[in-house]
Amino acid sequence: MSELCLWFQDHCRVDVPIILYIGWCSARGVHVDHQLLTQVEQTVDVWQRDVVAPLRGLRRELKRDSKGIAQETVSAFREELKSLELEAEHLELNALATLSSDETVAAVPVSDQKRLIESGLGQYLGRLKCDINAQTKEKITGFVACLSAEKTASG
């Protein structure tokens, strides 16, 4: 799952917490439509731009160029940045969870969950102007399968 999330992040410029949120909503039977995506983006865009993205950018830059400090030394610092980046994304997920926390959770058949995930993810990728080519479709299928497998495994 993490490899798929990173692929979408690198190739489509997705905000990973948003695609995880789409999966969470879909598992609860909540349709992620244009209106909800707009609300989602308004809720987290500033956090993503001003907190998460700079942490990620610095971590990735230091992987390419240690700025004159021994790479071994910088490596430990990069790990700390990674932890901070993941914590920032966790805070973002918590903020997103409040958007539909009052939605009724219904037993949703797996086939409907898959359809909802594909629809929500497709809308989000469309907003980002991500090229939905054969490789992207394959990654969407993999993402849906991972979420469905996790749902099945967890109950």
Walk me through the structure.
With 155 residues, the chain is mainly alpha-helical. 77% of the residues lie in helices and 0% in strands. The chain has helices spanning 2-12, 16-27, 34-64, 71-97, 110-127, 134-154. The protein starts with a helix and ends with a helix. The model has no long low-confidence stretch (mean pLDDT 91).
Q: Which descriptors apply to this entry?
A:
mainly alpha; 6 helices
Topology:
Blueprint: H1 2-12, H2 16-27, H3 34-64, H4 71-97, H5 110-127, H6 134-154
Largest sheet: none
Compute the CA-based radius of gyration: 17 Å
Number of domains: 1
Task: Give the structural class.
Answer: mainly alpha
What general outline do the C-alpha atoms trace? globular
**Stretches where pLDDT falls below 50 for ≥5 residues?**
none
Oligomer: single chain
Helix content: over 70%
Q: Terminal Cα separation, in Å? A: 18 Å
Series of H and E elements? HHHHHH
> Helix tally?
6
What's the total count of β strands?
Answer: 0
Instruction: Indicate the proportion of strand residues.
Output: under 5%
**Would you tell me the overall average pLDDT?**
91
Explain briefly what this protein structure is.
The chain has one domain. The longest helix has 31 residues, at 34-64.
